[in-house]
Design goal:
Chain lengths: 320, 320
């Protein structure tokens, strides 16, 4: 039940020989969520050895090619691999037309149902909610309609101190109420406070994805208190003007959002190909906000309350 | 002025960790022609170190995703790299709509003009012709409208035997007529036959691309006498029935076309991912037609009248 993010692509604009454009896979409460889908995402999913048939929900932030040109290929591969599980895609209005036009032209009807859910970029909204998690979209400021996405675990029930419960001879039929936080009252009227017979559940984790966007203070409001914030940082401070022109952010601006949002950790990405040394992004951001990492492709980021554990997925398998 | 084919992708249906779907780059008379454009083609172009800004004509055989899902990304990258040279795309009718819809949604107008030329799949037609070469499309038989493409050099002028011309004191102003094949008449009326003062030009080379298609005898007619024929062979003979059902060819069927067409060489490709040992395709085809090679990705095939020279482009650079 770990909370993990796999970075599949961290480059902006166009793929290069070695880099892929934006895509990430989030594992939350055993569900797989794909966030953006640049060209070649299906290849990166294979290379990361993720069982990508487990993806049932895809989130597309906006319709610039580096965030969705790999989607039609992935959907097509799902079909060719015989998928039958329904798939839901959250994204801007025109996405459905673009995808369906290509399937229609190819004379293909997917082997599985696809449901397109239109996001709207002017106000935050809850787009998917279960007992276990809540997923929202929130407005970003870019050249075209763009949303970020926030993934929040819900608090789990308290867990029983089984040893102490046995000592007190608490009957099993009372467990349910105790896990809900109720005190226990024995037959002879003694009240045992809940916190004496239960342990705190792990604190819920959360992740927010903010790409593409220029720096706006509102972003911090939408992602307040998340455990991990991914914020685009297309440029370093040397290209602040270019960032403004193109409605992107610098590493320091991303760090400012993380600080204002009191996010526990910041992950930078969407790097312009003009930078050879990507560590520069991390260095600059850390001036503003210390708990910063830069996204590396085919790296796994395990999110905990104590920090982020980073693992290189390339190291565990044969590469191309 | 060599005649070379670079195989960028040779897999069918879906890309895998290590393989790309159909795309090829043909160099003919110093022009670069891109044939089909599966997902990730721009990455393969970069990895092959081809100056892909030199591509001015793109040919799309049909609108199954493994033949064109990389096109919109490539066109987008041309734009982001500031291309201004016009580009012509030959392909089925709906291609223009699919591409333009995506650009419109992104609010992007390319920095260079694109001209879409509609191919038609029922009869062969010349689609591009200059003094130096001729390019035609020809019908194939697949599940949706599909054409092959034939690239033919035109005969060059005869080249002058300079040494002998000097000996005869032939004035420079007569060179042009001699290169056109005319005899030379000296001032005192002596006729020197053209073949005594010129050399034969190199014989024109030609390439035909036939994918996707089931085996049909007509294909041989369209590609008669080409120096190199690429014919899809999605399956080996063990899957002949599957080939028929899906309107694809086996390696032996591809070889039969090469034999009937009296092609000098055959290149196989579009391999189904179910085959681990791709040499099997070559082995089976050679039973019917000896001059057979199987396409390998990031390999360069230099076409000459004497045969095909094969070079591994991966060997000359750092890989991912």
């Amino acid at each position: 039940m770990s909370f993990e993010l796999v970075v599949l692509g961290a480059a902006s604009a166009t793929p290069t020989s070695n880099n892929y454009t934006t895509s990430q896979l989030l594992k939350m409460r055993e569900h797989y969520f794909l966030i953006d889908c640049g060209e070649g995402t299906q290849k990166q999913l294979r290379r990361s050895r993720i069982k990508f048939s487990k993806i049932n929900n895809i989130f597309i932030s906006h319709l610039h090619g580096d965030h969705f040109f790999g989607l039609v290929g992935l959907l097509s591969s799902f079909h060719l691999l015989g998928r039958t599980t329904p798939l839901t895609i959250f994204g801007p209005p025109k996405l459905k037309d673009i995808i369906l036009m290509q399937f229609r032209t190819a004379g293909t009807f997917t082997s599985y149902p696809i449901s397109f859910k239109v996001t709207q970029h002017k106000v935050p909204q809850v787009i998917l909610e279960t007992d276990s998690y809540k997923i929202s979209s929130f407005p970003l400021k870019h050249r075209i309609a763009t949303t970020g996405f926030k993934f929040q675990e819900k608090a789990q029930k308290r867990s029983l101190n089984k040893e102490y419960a046995d000592k007190l001879n608490i009957p099993i039929c009372d467990y349910h109420r105790i896990k809900d936080g109720k005190d226990w009252i024995s037959d002879n009227g003694i009240i045992i406070p809940n916190n004496q017979i239960t342990f705190d559940p792990p604190e819920p984790l959360s992740y927010a994805f903010a790409s593409d966007t220029r720096y706006v203070p509102e972003t911090a409001k939408y992602v307040q208190g998340v455990t991990l914030l991914y914020h685009e940082s297309t440029f370093c401070e040397d290209k602040l003007e270019r960032a403004k022109q193109t409605m992107h952010s610098t590493a320091m601006e991303a760090a400012r959002v993380a600080k204002e949002a009191q996010a526990s950790n910041l992950l930078l990405g969407h790097f312009s190909a003009r930078y050879r040394n990507l560590d520069q992004f991390e260095t600059e951001a850390k001036v503003v906000y210390q708990n910063t990492l830069r996204a590396k492709e085919l790296y796994n980021y395990k999110v905990t309350q104590k920090g982020i554990k980073v693992k290189n997925l390339r190291a565990i398998k044969n590469e191309e």
